[in-house]
Each structure stands twice: as C-alpha cells, then as structure tokens.
## 1
Amino acid sequence: MRPFLAMAAILALMPFGLPPYAMTLLTEALILGLTAMSLDLMVGYTRLISFGHAASYGLGAYTSGWLLLHTDFPVLFVVPLAALFAGVVAIGVAWVCTLATGVSFSMLTLAFAQLLYAVAFKWTSVTGGSDGLAGIPRRAGPFGMTILSTKSGFYYFVLACLLGAFLFCRSLVNSPFGAVLRGIRENEAKTLSLGYNIRAYKIAVVALSYGLGGLAGALYAPFAGFANTELLFWLFSGQVLIMVIVGGSGTLVGPVLGAAFFMLAEHWLSSYTEAWALFFGLIFIGFVLFAPEGIFGVFSTRLIRRARPVG
Amino acid sequence: MALLELDGLTRRYGGIVAVDQVSMRVEAGEVRAVIGPNGAGKTTLFHLISGVVKPSEGQVRFADAPLAGLTAHQVCQRGVSRTFQLTALFPEMTARENARLAAQARQKRSWQPYGGGNIFAVAQRLGDAALEQIGLGHVANRPAGLLSHGDQRLLEVAMALAQQPRLLLLDEPTQGLSVEETAQAVETLARLLVDTKMTVLLVEHDMEVVFRLAHKITVLHRGAVIADGAPEAVRGDPEVQRAYLGGLE
Amino acid sequence: MDFAAFLLTQCVNALSQAALLFFLGVGLTLIFGIMRIVNFAHGSLYMLGAFVGYTLVRLTGNFWIALLIAPVLVGAFGGVFEYAILRRLYRRDGSAFLMVTFGLALMLGDGIRLLWGSEALQVPLPDVFSGVVFLLDEPFPSYRLFLAAAGVIVAVTIWQFLERTRLGLLIRATSQNAEMVHALGVDVRLVRSAVFGIGCALAAVGGVLAAPLVTASLGMAATVIIDAFVIVIIGGMGSFLGSLIGALLVAFVQVFGNYYFPDLALAFMYLIMLLVLVVRPGGLLGKEA
C-alpha cells in the first residue's frame, strides 16, 4: 500500500510544480496509462491478446463527446455513463469473441474494432464521419461546480479515475476471480477441467477491460475537446498493446509506465525524426525478443529480486 | 445403485468406432482398472465420462443422474475429477498454488472478484492436505514446472484429490515414472485409496500397478469390453491374452 | 442490363477479387501451416508490394517487370526478417510471433509513409489489359479477366509445386512433422525461411496486381489483413485448398453484398467468419480443432 500512496501523493502534487504545457502532457499520459492498464487485465493476466482495444477507447470517447455536445449533462456524469455504456457493449463483443480462442480471438477483436471504425466513418450524422466530433465542452456542474473545467481540476479528475481503477484492478487480480484468470493464462484446458466455466470468466474480464478502456476514452474527449476516427484505428490498438508489453504485462503498474515511456518517446523522438513510429516498432520487437517482462518486469525481477508474487 | 453407470456408450469418429457399446457399473468405493492395448479407446472413454467429448450413442449416469449435455466443467462440479495422460499443470505456480486453485473450484463463490481471504484459506487447507497425503509436502513451494516428472504426475493426482471428488479418473498416473518412482507412487496411492474409500477409475498399462490397486478390471479391445471381473479371472481369460499377445491390432 | 449480364459482371468482379484474396490468403496459410506463425504483417507486405510495384512501374514504365521484381524484393525482405528475428522465437509461445509480426506491420506502415508519403498513388493499368472485352454485349475491363485467369494459373502452379517438386514435398512434410524431416537430414530452418519468403512474395504479387484497381494507399494493410484472416479462418489454417475456397467465398460475399447492401458488406464478412468459427472452430478444412 505504501508505494501506492507515495505515487499518489507525488502525482497529486504535480500541478503545483509543473508548467501548464507539462500538465497537459501529464494528463494525457495518465489517460493513456489507464487505457494500457485496462488492456493489461486481458493481455497480462489472462493472455487474451486483443488487437482491438481502440474500440473501447473510441466508444468511450464518442459516447462522452456526443453526450457533452447534445445534452446538458456535466462531465462528472457523462464520463462514468460513457464508461458504463462501453462496458455493456463489451459484454456482447466479448460473448462473440470468446467463441474462439487464440489467434481467432485476436482477429475477432480486431474485426470488431474495424467494424466500429467503419461505422464511425459512415454514420456521419452521429459521429461526424471522418471529421469526428469537435468542440467538446468540459461542461461544469452539477450545482455550478466549475472545478472540472479548469486544467488542474480536470487533472485531478483523471488522476482519481486512474487511482480508483488501479485499486479496483489490484483488488480484482488478487481475488479468487483473479486466481482463476491466472490459471487461464497458464493452462486454459486444465482450468476448464478443474471445473471453472472459463468462458464466463473471459467474458467478464473482457467486459471489465473494455469498460475501463471506455473510461479512458470518455476522459479523453472532454480533455482534448474532440473525438475522431483515429481513436478507433488499429494503429492505436497496437500502440496500447506496445505500451503494455514494453511497460511490463501482468503488473498493472508496468503498462502505466509503458504509456508514459511511449508518450515521452513520441514527444522526444518526433522532434528528432519523422520516423519515430518506426523506431518504436523496433523497440517493441526488441522488448519482445530480449526483455519480454517489460521495463517494470526488468526492474522488479532483475534489479530488486523480489520474491514471486503469490496468488 | 452404482455410483457410475455406463450404458451402451459409443463414440464414432467418421468410420472409426473409438468406443463400442461399452456398459459398466462401478460401485462406490470400488477401484476399477480399465486396461487394453494401445488404441483400445481408454482415454476416449475418460473423455466421454468427464464431458470433454459427447457420445454418439448411449449414456453416462453418475450418482443416478445422467451427464448428458453437460460440459466438462459442469461434470467436474458434479464431483468427477480427473488427471490427464499428458501432464497438465500450471507450470509457473508453486505446487501449493496449483493445489489451491484446484480446491478453489469446488468452493462456493469461487469466482468472487474481491477479497477472498476466507476462500483462499479454505482452499489452501484442502490443497495442502492433498499434497501431504500424496507425499509432496517437501516440494510444496517449488514451481510446478520445475518438479521432476514423477512429482508432476503426483501433483496432478493431488490436485484432483484437493477437489474432494466422488469419482476420481486417473489416466495412466505412473506413465513416464522410473521403477522406484512407480513403486513409491503405487504404495502412496494404495494407502490413500484405502483411507479415503475413494471411487476410482484407473487407466494403466503397468500390470503390477493394476493388480496392486484394483478391485475389478475391465478390458477394452478396439473400443469394446472383452472382459470384466476380478483381477485373477481377467488374468486367466484367454481372450484377453489373445488381445494383448495375439498380434491382432 | 438483363440478369444474365448482371450475373456475369458480378461473377467476373468476384473472381478477380477472389484471385487477389487468394494471393493474400495462400501465403498466410502456408506460413501458418509450416511455421505455426500467424503473420500479422501479411497485409503490410501486400501493401509494400503495391508501393514497390508503383515505383518499379515509374522507373521502368513496364508493369510486367514490376510484377516480376517486386515480389522477389519483398520475398527477400521477408526471408531476411525471418532469419534475423523470427528464428529466435521458435521456442516461445505463439503470442510472441503475433506481437513481433505486429511490430513489423507497424514499422512497415510508418516506413512506407516515410518513403512514399501519405497520398494514395495511382498505378496505371498495363497497356495490354487496359481496354474492355465484350461478353454478352457488356463491357468488361480486360484487367479483371486477366486477374481471374492469373488467379487460376497461380493456384494450379502452386498446387503442382506442392505436389510435384522436391521443395514442395519438403514443405508439405514439414507442415506435418518437422522433426521427422529434420531427422532425415534436411535443414528445416532453410525450409522455414523459404516458406516465409515465398509467402511474403505471394502477398506482394497480390499487392502489385491490386494496385491498378484500388490505388496504393496506407489504409490497405488494415482492411486487407482482416480479409486475409477471414479467408484463412474459413478455409482452415494451413490448408491450401481452404485458402482457395475461403477466397472465393469471401470475394463472392463481398461483391454481391456490396451490390445489394453496400453499407453492410463489412458486417456480412464478419458474420460469415463468426458463423464458421461457431460451427467449426478449425475452419472448413483446418488442421487445428
């Protein structure tokens, strides 16, 4: 608990030290961190490789964006609502995708994301087509509470979501439910033969994962002020997957670090070269080959030599 | 009423009949060995009973209720635990964690998504007890993937036991074990089965193991039952001898 | 236009589409069958073929030279990638391949953007097939007829290659029992590199042939990778005949679906993929259950 409190305290103090430009980057990093962490539930803890996480993000973003543009609801209500919507849709998506296993599962997740991408393109009246939704307001309220409209106010909102999601996920993976996920990860057939209804577990974890990804997307729309089809593109799905692997899958914290690393790299590399995505792909391949446990994994097993976590 | 009743159980794969009109009654507390040459359909029989494969004909009745239409995990929940011919474990978890996960499956609220201290404690107790019974207490904290082959086979049995099943299906538990390991495993199992009065269906190739543990033997050949009875009777049965030695393949 | 002509038009469209999809799918299924690798970069290699083809056509002014050389270049690139990187992963589990080839797809996507820009590039039809042919009084672009014919020719060629040549035999044997082949003294690693290279080359052939029809664009890879996987999943991972059947099925659904329900064509494809996965998880002719 103590490392968590320390991190939370450090992050809470950031608005007092950092210039506004850095605050914007940090807020975006936290949103991406939440996205990556949500994917880790599927990839790291259950070995369900998804290439379609952009679907959850985009769904959350478009839903919250649309609600903020077309209704009077304040951001505080819209964000959880959009996340809930993404989670519910995800149950259906999960039900279908878990009909298959292995590669077929991954392809189905990609297919759904592409389907949503195509729908977003065509359904211009609702989604704005290729232009997307713009001018999304960070509506204040309820009761005239304007704090979320400010930069630091919104930052704290994002931070609260990330920390809350982290506590939720950590509780989940350390619970009996989490132990079963781990069994599925290591030997799916054996877990089934022990009497666990693994399909149900998979559907649940995918729905939760997409729900949290939807939360991140729902935060992004009012943060950036827009939502467009890029958020649903497979390239973004891939980037989130890279964050998880490079950061350290199966650790919850690793992917958040991975997201931060990714943003830093994007920011830094892109000022040197136009080909930063190319280099990042190379870095990704390098990690898969030589350090599959990711940054956090390297840190905790090679440098700290902690005992293997139980459960 | 027998604990397990198989009635004309048949499984076809295209033109091949893997299991042919197998009928069998296994009483509670009985240890029944299922033997036969390779390809006789023994593992398929296990798959049919445990719900991994659906029968083409016939039915399986367990504790006087049909198992038709149940999936593998549902059959397990009814009280049927099994081990596999090819060792299936959770290699990165310790032996204790393996056993705990097995025991957890039969707890109420095994799916609880938060906390779980209580559930884990109960499951760990059952798991540890099973490990002790099998004699793996000394390697309890070693990752399963690093155990010797013999210990891995025993761990699988321990996991099945941790589930406190009413019927235990053991698929070649001594396969791949050395002579000493086999002798040790057999003694452990013999003691265990007497102590727990467990009902067991045992597939084995090693006849010494069969004669040491089994109350009755069923012989399969090309999917069909060709002999069924006390070990001595089966030993002397000419048709059994022909099936094994006669070169009919 | 009367019904017969309509049907013929759509069939020609479907057959030419099937040919392109077949080039895509057969490489993917071969790679999976022999190496148990799911090549996520397959769509990107197809795209690479299209862009390299574009450049070669501009350099030489000759479509046929491009068609000949681009696949060789892409195939060589694939072989090198397999040698340098994929070889290290054979002991790891399948998800490592999936992710590394995904990394390759990302790199190719960005690399292509850097070398050729973000605009879609127009590749001119080869002169000899730039006209129309009249069947049943309806004009058909002769290029499409060429594609359909090319598909048949290549399918037969590959079939004969697998059945009659030594390398083909080695490939088939390796897909069934790599260890046995190794025990017989064959360097299985070379077979694998060859197969990966051939698979990439085939994808590139598809890309070059598709370029005059759909233009070479950065979005190609994403749509096409799903098409490729749908084909292979329907036909069965590792089955040559399956990739043929899958390509035909998907092409016909796409073409006819596009005509009757233009907005739902995408959904139809996924629907078929889902149906097949539900009914037969191994695909129609697959090896994996």
Note: Chain A touches chain B at residues 171-172, 174-180, 182-183, 186-187, 189-198, 200-201, 204, 310-311 (CB under 8 Å).
## 2
Amino acid sequence: MRRLEALTAIYPALESRVVVTIMGAVAAELQSIGHRPNFFYLQHAMGLASSMGLGIALCRPEKQVIVLDGDGSVLMNLGGLTTLARYRPRNLVHVVFDNESLLSVGGFPTATSTGSDIAAIAKAAGIPRTATVHDLEQFQGAFDQALQANDLTTIVAKVEAVGPAAFVTDLSLLENRFAFQRYLREDLKP
Amino acid sequence: MSPVSNTHSQLVYDALKACGVRLISALPETWLVHLIRLAEDDPEVTLVRLAKEEEGVGISAGAHLAGVKSAMLMQNHGFLASINGIVSCAQLYRIPLLMLISYRGEFGERDPWQTEGGGVTEELLRALRIPYAFLDNPSHVKHRVTKASTLAASANKPVALLLCRDLMWEDFEAEHR
C-alpha cells in the first residue's frame, strides 16, 4: 500500500474533520490531494503531532480529531502514547503510517524494520483500540470503524517507503497555523 | 509535612486562574506538588499529567489553536528536556506558552543531583530569547504571572516564570533541622 493511496481513500472523511499531520511525506502528499483550512501540518517538532492532537481533542470534545503520524515520529515520543491512553480522548483517531524508515532524510531504517511493533506498543500503553493493516481495503475498513467506534484508536498502516518528489510546498507555515486557528475557533465566536 | 509552601502555591494557582488558564500540563516535582493537586481538584481546569515535559509543548499548542489558555508546570530539567519542542513547535509556529519552571539548583540547594541544571537555566532562556522573570516573593506573584501571560499572548511566544526557593520552600527551619 502506498501512503498516497491510503490518504486518497480517507480524504472524504478528512474533509470535515480536524487533521494534524507530521512533517515530510505525509504533509506534502496530503497537500497534493488538496489543502483545507482544517488541516494542520506540524513541519518539525517530531513526535509532537499526537500531543497537539491530544490538546485539541481535550479542549474541543465535540470535534473529531485525526492525527496522521509516522513510525519515526512515534518512536521519538513513545511516552506520548501513555499520555494519550491515560486521557483517552474518544474523539481522536491516531493513524501511524509505518514505512519502516526515516524517508525524508534518506530512508534510514527505523526500529520497526527490525521488529518493533507500534500497534503492540500502543496497546500495551493502554490505547483501547489498535490495529495493524497491510492493504488499502483493511486500512479503509479500520479507519471507518475507528470513526464509528467513538473511542481512541491507533491504526498502524504499513506503507511502502515511497514519498513525493518534493517536500516543500507553497503553503507557508504561519499561513497554515493562523488559518487553522481561525477554523478551530470559528464556532467559539459569541 | 512538606516544607513546600501551601500558601504560596495557592497564590500562584489563583494568579493562573485569574489569567484564564483552563488547561495545565505537569510532570510531578517536589516543589510543584501543591500546584498539581490544586489543578487536579479544580473542576474548571483540565490537568494533563505527562510522561515527559516536551509533550506539554504540543498539548499547549493544540489547546491554544483551539482557543483554550494553558500553562505548563515543570522543573528546570523538564525545560531542558523540552527545548526542541519549544523551538520547533512553539517558536517556529508562534505559539504562546506560559511556562512555570521550578528553579532547582540555586543557592540553598541541598540535593547534589539538582546542582548542574540551575547553572544553565537562565543562560538557556536567554539563548532562546525567552523572556523570563523570577517568582521569589509573594508580593509580586499576581502581577508577574498576569504580565507574563499578557506578553505570551500578545507576542505569540513562550515566556517563563522561575519558581524560586524563597517562594516555594517556605520553611527554612524545616530544611535545616
């Protein structure tokens, strides 16, 4: 399964939800399908996309939050899985695209290439719903179930280590940040 | 009984509440016990207990974008552990952070393991261009917390308040008996 195919498959569901992604291929590929003001791309701070998602999900329980994470980023913040599990935001779906490598910096293999199992780690951390999927059909099924389940879910999607031709897009970081804030706060206006 | 000042912890907590703080992330440390308990017992505040302090940067960023004012409680070693997140999330994306940092390793520190961190804390804050002030006397707590929060919001950047021994560790006798 390619990540771009997986993102394309769930794009209709992302359109109406709050989305936080990591940097690199995930951010560039989602933008290539179509940027929206409800999408935020954390273009650095590896590991913190899931923490940002947690902050949003706790503050706005009426909104469904989708975090699009990666194996390299999750491995930098494994403790964050225990914090997610501890507060168990039922409005958060955590997708981890696992290509077993740090693709955007040259494809160096991560520990998932030598057997570390992120879904098992997430389950052991206390995430109530976890799954590892290997093809598009399984991914779509697991994602749809997670949206229906109304409970914290981590889906590890095994994807090929293939990325976009370029990682820099024409969306500036601060433009994205302020538009996203405006979107999130729109319904707080009196 | 812990020599950590209950009264002064309450003063700091009340000042945070008065600024509109409604989410607090924290990692336990001796000087922060009362502040964390106050947050836990307060139905108006969401307390997020962390595994590592850097997570708090992401959580505060998410809360800010969603329109909720937050504060972070950490030891200075937690600040050291958060620096990448502070730079590559909060500063890169212009996110206000109100960081309350217990300033271990100052004059009077008795724990040998706390003595290195104190020597680098202010240098690092200056290197990162993070405005900071000391909370070392109850008379200025409310003012300084309010002003720090105001600057964080207007400048969209991290600010720090150093919780000092003279404020947090009230009982000198208890420490030295």
Note: Strands of chain B lie at 23-26, 46-49, 70-75, 97-102, 132-135, 158-163.
